[in-house]
């Protein structure tokens, strides 16, 4: 079971809901997270259960970023609106940087998201389970040392 986060800017929320609906079967066996409104919209249209953080501008991006910083997130689909300035752009940049630092796969558009979701469906993310298994402070059985 992987930890997957969904984030979508306002003008991308419909696109996110449509995308998640199309691949709902892939996400059912994973632990899902989202910023507030995006998660609510997805849950209204699917049977998926999502842990919702705050809205992005109110700190939701940073809450997801905190999980990324701890290498406790496995995949992020963040449908960004490149044509609209965002008031919390520094938070967005920090999240993208953290994904690069920790090597967390991140899709910022539907084309890349589809490639990652198809890889997820094939089982190509098994390497993330090893990341968690051998985290510092965790033994091979998953217990805290």
UniProtKB/TrEMBL annotation:
Keyword Nucleus: no
Keywords: Lyase
Family to which the UniProt record says this protein belongs: Belongs to the methylglyoxal synthase family.
EC identifiers of the protein: 4.2.3.3
Keyword Phosphoprotein carried by entry: no
Described purpose of this protein according to its UniProt entry: Catalyzes the formation of methylglyoxal from dihydroxyacetone phosphate.
Lineage top rank: taxon: Bacteria
Binding of substrate, residues: 9, 13, 35-38, 55-56, 88
Pfam name, any one: MGS
Reaction(s) this enzyme catalyzes, per UniProt: dihydroxyacetone phosphate = methylglyoxal + phosphate
Active site: 61
Protein name in UniProt: Methylglyoxal synthase
Ranges that cross the membrane: none
Molecular functions (GO terms): methylglyoxal synthase activity
């Amino acid at each position: 079971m992987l930890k997957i986060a969904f984030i979508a800017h306002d003008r991308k929320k419909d696109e996110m809901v449509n995308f998640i609906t199309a691949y709902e079967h892939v996400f059912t066996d994973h632990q899902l997270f989202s910023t507030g409104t995006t998660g609510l919209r997805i849950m209204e249209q699917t049977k998926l259960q999502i842990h919702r953080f705050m809205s992005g501008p109110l700190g939701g991006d940073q809450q997801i970023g905190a999980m990324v910083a701890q290498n406790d997130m496995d995949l992020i689909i963040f449908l960004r609106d490149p044509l609209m300035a965002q008031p919390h752009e520094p938070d967005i940049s920090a999240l993208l940087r953290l994904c690069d630092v920790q090597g967390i796969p991140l899709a910022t558009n539907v084309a890349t998201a589809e490639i990652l979701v198809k890889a997820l469906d094939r089982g190509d993310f098994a390497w993330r389970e090893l990341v968690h298994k051998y985290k510092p402070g965790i033994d091979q059985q998953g217990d805290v040392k």
